[in-house]
């Protein structure tokens, strides 16, 4: 069986697959780097820039709930100021304004279509505003069955609000759901603590510590095989 095919005779114990979006489906690191690099002198270490941005954004989210477009604007401005290159007047919202152009990882659309053809229901649980996420969903090639945003929950992952709302709207129990995400901090730890099986998409070969995902994959090329195995186990 090919890695992007579902075995229809198994995996029926799984009904829903929930996904984080940015970093899991959408290449947010390239999006952030593309938006902010023009304001920095070359050469720009894009990986280091993205890593620093993660820490700044988490701090902004921790302060209080605010719309994600405001989180992006604040985090981008703070990051560049900390690097000694404040955003010039008129560019304060360059990061939220760029989000609609961020693209999926190359394998994502095919993987999502294969899961849908396999009979699974798909949800996205994301730390964004609804209109921002809608712009990204248009790039995915499929429309999710359910979308849960920070705007809906008035909280940001790793708080459990997204999963609580997903369960309330879908009626699905953790036993019939697998959560797929690229962040141990924002997703995998909380989902596991709530009883969900998890798939950690480890695109950068990060050290896995502090939490034990059910499965670890490099990207979504093999997600159908992994779901098939989890459903049969």
With strands numbered from the N-terminus, the spatial order across the biggest sheet is: 3-2-1-4-5-6
The structural domain count equals 2
Q: What structural class results from the helix and strand content?
A: alpha/beta
CATH superfamily of the largest domain: HAD superfamily/HAD-like
Give the secondary structure arrangement, pairings included.
Layout: E1 16-19, H1 28-36, H2 46-63, H3 68-82, H4 94-98, H5 108-117, E2 121-126, H6 130-137, E3 146-149, H7 150-153, H8 161-170, E4 177-181, H9 184-193, E5 197-201, E6 215-217, H10 223-232
Parallel strand pairs: 1-2, 1-4, 2-3, 4-5, 5-6
Helix pairs in contact: 1-2, 2-3
Protein model, in words:
The chain has 233 residues and is an alpha/beta fold. The chain has two domains: 16-27 and 103-232, Rossmann fold; 28-101. 42% of the residues lie in helices and 12% in strands. The protein has helices at residues 28-36, 46-63, 68-82, 94-98, 108-117, 130-137, 150-153, 161-170, 184-193, 223-232; strands spanning 16-19, 121-126, 146-149, 177-181, 197-201, 215-217. A six-stranded parallel sheet has the order 3-2-1-4-5-6, sandwiched between helices. Strand 4, helix 9 and strand 5 (197-201) form a beta-alpha-beta unit.
């Amino acid at each position: 069986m090919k890695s992007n095919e579902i075995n229809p005779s198994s995996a029926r114990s799984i009904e829903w697959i929930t996904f984080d979006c940015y970093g899991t489906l959408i290449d947010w690191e390239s999006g952030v780097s593309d938006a902010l690099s023009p304001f920095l002198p070359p050469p720009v270490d894009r990986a280091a820039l993205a890593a620093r941005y993660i820490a700044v954004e988490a701090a902004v989210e921790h302060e209080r709930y605010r719309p994600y477009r405001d989180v992006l604007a604040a985090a981008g401005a703070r990051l560049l100021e900390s690097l000694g290159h404040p955003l010039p007047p008129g560019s304060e919202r360059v990061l939220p304004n760029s989000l609609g152009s961020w693209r999926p990882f190359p394998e994502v659309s095919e993987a999502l279509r294969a899961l849908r053809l396999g009979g699974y229901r798909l949800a996205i649980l994301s730390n964004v505003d609804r209109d921002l996420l809608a712009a990204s969903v248009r790039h995915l090639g499929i429309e999710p069955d359910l979308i849960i945003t920070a705007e809906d929950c008035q909280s940001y992952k790793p708080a459990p609000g997204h999963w609580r709302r997903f369960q309330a709207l879908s009626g699905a129990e953790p036993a019939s759901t697998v959560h797929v995400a690229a962040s141990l901090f924002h997703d995998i730890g909380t989902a596991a603590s709530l009883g969900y099986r998890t798939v950690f998409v480890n695109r950068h070969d990060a050290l896995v510590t502090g939490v034990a995902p059910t499965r670890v994959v490099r990207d979504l090329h093999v997600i159908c095989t992994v779901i098939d195995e989890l459903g049969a186990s």
